[in-house]
Design goal:
The structure is a homodimer. Chain A is of the alpha/beta class. Chain A has a domain of 201 residues: Rossmann fold, CATH 3.40.50. Chain A has 13 helices and 14 strands. In chain A, the strands form four sheets. In chain A, strands 5-2-1-9-10-13-14 form a seven-stranded parallel sheet, sandwiched between helices. In chain A, strands 7-6-8 form a three-stranded antiparallel sheet. A two-stranded antiparallel ribbon of chain A has the order 3-4. The termini of chain A are close together. The relative contact order of chain A is 0.15. The model of chain A has no long low-confidence stretch (mean pLDDT 96). Chains A and B meet through helix 3, helix 4 and helix 5 of A and helix 3, helix 4 and helix 5 of B.
Chain lengths: 311, 311
């Protein structure tokens, strides 16, 4: 079975890692959000791409989920000493990725080519594709401070400003990166990983051509990023609330209504299953919390079994 | 006594450090070669400025003379893993300097302002000035490979290509950085540190306005970078040879004939003293090898005493 996964950062990366443990590498493609990409220290930083790649390569920091394991912080501490910008925490190993990527972009390479080359160097066998090679910038519209670039909202302001909406600047002019539409067209199923609907998956789905391709796929399954009204990590639940929607697995399913054929919700939300099924989706209740590598493997296997038996 | 020192990298930095131990900070200005500056990993790197500053701040690697003490190499090793450029060895702490400088240049700051700000952060009290804020690029003309950028010749090719001459690209359009001409004009003496005449001091002296200002100074003293026909470090002796000149303290003195009033040669070259005096220079023979911090202090004191008693 050929699977395309759509993923943002930490939660998404974990499920992708689980799927990579279960599927043949040729049968798994992950399309990653690049709306959070930004420039810092003059370098192009792609937080979600890096989190997905580090996780797949076994290089991710197991405590935080993002950044590198065995990380050191010499550069950051010296930049602080020079009174440079130190609000965004770049570790030494992680920094090398940004430097090398920025160099190659300056040399005219596409983000997708660079990502592919990094995956080879890191021993990643599955196909990891940025949603687009072109610049798309997620803007968080806030009540107090107007438009904020995503990393400013997320890291600098710790998600404190109240959200009014989102904008993916430049998305209307962007094209899916090479291989994205082909992978979706050839896929037996598209899996929405447990990533933030507003700022991780919506940007991917907003790249012209991707949503129509996804809709043509026989099976489109989502794993809820919201459990018992909250998120494991990140501001998704807070965003639903501030937009006037009660955060829940049902709200997530409704967000994607018309696109999803399958929905996987957590055992803690079993009572929502009937309402979600009422949206015309096949539902499965399972443990969706991934604390260990084994949890990732098990959730991925659950998702694939569910898809296969209801195909 | 107000002193202006002209310096390149390691040897020059050591004497400047000695002078800084002896003089009041207000009485010492160092003008540093920027002809070796280049771009690598997308960053502006100023090897001589950094060596001088790290040395003055007590941050320099005591083994190599360049780079940082307590250095780590995580970024470089990760860049190697990604098959990036790893021939130029940038340590993690050192890298922070280049990142922050590049950021500030991109933000419109001048190299001299940035250097001043870094000196404050590092606790350097004397005035450290780049020779110019504008781009000047030292080109080594070689027999085998034509024109080579300095770092390519020096680090990548390990000074192996035979030298035919030098070019300081852009120097004719450059201006001394703010404060350079004022410092020379106010100085009682200009001291040429034991740096490479061809690629460290000549670039400084080629910036329009600097040589005329130096020539107006009452005392212009040079400390030989060549001892017993060889250099402690770097390719100066090899360059003299390849240009058909026997490398010696005399050759250095002759190189600067018409500009120098004072010349300090090493005890090992005592036999050259009469020939150098014959060029119309006051001479002093002393130990010019600086192995310890104490040696730097002693040589600086010797030079200042020599200047004062012959002024």
């Amino acid at each position: 079975m050929k699977i395309v996964a759509l993923a943002g950062g930490v939660g998404g990366a974990k499920l992708v890692d689980g799927l990579a443990q279960v599927l043949h590498p040729k049968d798994l493609t992950v399309i990653v959000n690049t709306g959070d990409d930004f420039h810092h220290w003059g370098l192009k930083i792609c937080p979600d791409l890096d989190t997905v790649c580090y996780t797949l390569a076994g290089l991710a920091n197991p405590e935080t989920g993002w950044g590198r394991r065995d990380e050191t912080w010499k550069v950051l501490s010296e930049i602080s000493q020079l009174k440079g910008e130190d609000w965004f925490k770049i570790g030494d190993r992680d920094l090398a990725t940004h430097i090398e990527r920025t160099e190659r972009i300056a040399a005219g390479k596409r983000l997708s080519e660079i990502t592919n080359s990094f995956c080879q160097a890191w021993g990643i066998a599955i196909s990891v594709l940025p949603m687009t090679d072109e610049p798309v910038t997620t803007i968080v519209k806030t009540q107090e401070q107007g438009d904020l670039a995503f990393q400013d909202y997320f890291v600098h302001q710790l998600c404190e400003p109240k959200v009014k909406g989102f904008k993916f600047a430049g998305v209307e002019f962007s094209r899916p990166s090479p291989g994205v539409l082909e992978a979706i067209t050839e896929a037996d199923a598209v899996v929405f990983c447990p990533s933030n609907p507003w700022v991780s998956l919506d940007p991917i789905l907003s790249v012209p051509g991707i949503t129509p391709a996804v809709k043509k796929t026989k099976i489109v399954a989502a794993v809820t990023p919201i459990i018992a009204g909250a998120t494991i990590k990140g501001p998704a639940a807070k965003m639903f609330l501030e937009l006037g929607i009660e955060p829940s697995a049902f709200a997530v399913a409704q967000h994607y209504e018309g696109m999803l054929t399958h929905f996987i919700l957590d055992a803690l939300d079993q009572d929502l299953e009937i309402r979600i099924a009422g949206l015309g989706m096949n539902t499965m209740v399972t443990n969706t919390v991934m604390k260990s590598t084994d949890d990732r493997h098990k959730l991925a296997a659950d998702v694939l079994n569910f898809i296969q038996r209801t195909a």
